[in-house]
Amino acid sequence: MSEQQVKRPRKPVDPDVIVLHEGEFLRLLRRAHWEYVVRPHSSGAGFVVALTDADELVLVEQYRLPVRGRTIELPAGIIGDSEAFADEDACTSALRELEEETGFRGAEAQLITTAPTAAGLTAETSYFVRVRGLTRVHAGGGVDGEDITVHCVALDGIDDWLDAQRGAGLAVDARIYAALHFIARERR
């Protein structure tokens, strides 16, 4: 965590909310009988829906400590998680995260929809962003030791590919299926 992140003021807590624990990246809260978490340095999570010119969905693979294994996911990131990006909107964040994680620079970004990330666990909002006009500018892999593997998967074989990844022991994030729905809807 950078010094800028540590010194950034945290979002205030509502008076009817009890702070149970304050971590470096998460705050555990209780309102009435419900416990939930928030990211105090964030305005949401952005998920990137991006296709290459060859009609491949851009995905990332990385180790996720909470599930103790590697996952297949959409390129994504926390919006406004550092002082440098505090005022960044979802589309700007999506373009930045896509390039950091995958090496693809997008020409344009458009918000598809928003949804609760996990309504029973967090107040966080997920922003699904469609990015178009991809140009490969570097190999990808993330920043700060993220160890990201980039996968460009042909849409006409993506179901089998995802099944094979799951069969190999990787977790497949359900938001990929939402992205496939958005792509199918776009093509109608």
TrEMBL record:
Molecular-function annotations in GO: hydrolase activity
Protein's UniProt keywords contain Amino-acid biosynthesis: no
InterPro entries for this protein: NUDIX_hydrolase-like_dom_sf (IPR015797), NUDIX_hydrolase_dom (IPR000086)
Domain named Nudix hydrolase: residues: 46-116
CDD domains documented for this protein: NUDIX_ADPRase_Nudt5_UGPPase_Nudt14
Pfam family, one: NUDIX
One Gene Ontology term from the biological process aspect of the record: nucleoside phosphate metabolic process
Superkingdom of origin: Bacteria
Signal peptide: none
Keywords: Hydrolase
The keyword Hydrolase appears for this protein: yes
Record-linked PANTHER family: ADP-SUGAR PYROPHOSPHATASE, UDP/ADP-SUGAR PYROPHOSPHATASE
Protein name: ADP-ribose pyrophosphatase
